[in-house]
Amino acid sequence: MTEIEVRDAVAADLPQIAAVALATGQDEEWGGADPAYMTHLLAQGNVVVGVLDGSVVGFGATRQIGSGPAAVSMLCDLFVSPRLHGAGCGRALLARLWPGDGRRMTFSSLHRNALPLYTGFGLDAWWPLLYLRGRVDAIAAPAGWAAEAADAAEVAALELAWTGADRSADHHAWAARPGGTSLLARHDGQLLAAATAGGAGSGYGLTHLALAPSAGSADAAAAVLAVLAALEPADGQALACVPAPHPAVRALLGTGWRIDEYDIFMATDPDLIDPYRAVPSPALA
């Protein structure tokens, strides 16, 4: 077989990237087949493609979160045409995206090739990210809690102040998705969480949530419930991707929400995401 060439992606590659994504079953909005998502990654991240005989047969993307010594490289996507699984294309893409050492993380699928590949690049498996789904009218905001619509810039500014990570571009991109909205959650008037929700069809739900440093464990659960209770999905159902150890999981399961699927959080350090407080985006964390 001819050697696979790995190069930086350009906008003209998007149709072939979409074809690879669709061939691997990634047909949802905010994935490799979505031009808005891939255009965001081209502008804000690092996207590479694997080319064989002039055609794109795989792609990968990373997004840096934070800056300086605390910066983390988040692997957003890594997909290879099914006919080339096991041929080394994924490893070649990842070697281009992650040369040398560094702080790295991703949410690995359960594909048999995924976890061993990421382990070879210094990541270990730590906990499941649960894709929880249920009716928002089954949830009541806890006593004293309320969520309200906000501006994406305000939510991004709060997350920057609370975490030191500038997620402005991501918050604006999330808010621009179908049904996208930014939200603030308060307890007795005290601002304790900033979030973004949105998505098309069955992908609609809580996208990302950050907590104020003063928020405790009970606040972490209550903030998620308050935000979900404030959503208005067309079919009454929403999605929330929540770390399995998060205190909101038990509360959501208790209301009848169910686990659709799960990914595995893998990272060079387990502390890159706090599973007891964070509600990360599976794509951009």
UniProtKB/TrEMBL annotation:
Protein's UniProt name: N-acetyltransferase
CDD domains assigned: NAT_SF (cd04301)
Nucleus among keywords: no
Pfam families associated with the record: Acetyltransf_1
Keyword Transferase set for record: yes
Coiled-coil regions, chain positions: none
UniProt cross-references to SUPFAM superfamilies, sorted A to Z: Acyl-CoA N-acyltransferases (Nat)
Keyword tags: Transferase
Residue ranges of domain N-acetyltransferase in the record: 4-142
One Gene Ontology term of the molecular function aspect: acyltransferase activity, transferring groups other than amino-acyl groups
InterPro entries: Acyl_CoA_acyltransferase (IPR016181), GNAT_dom (IPR000182)
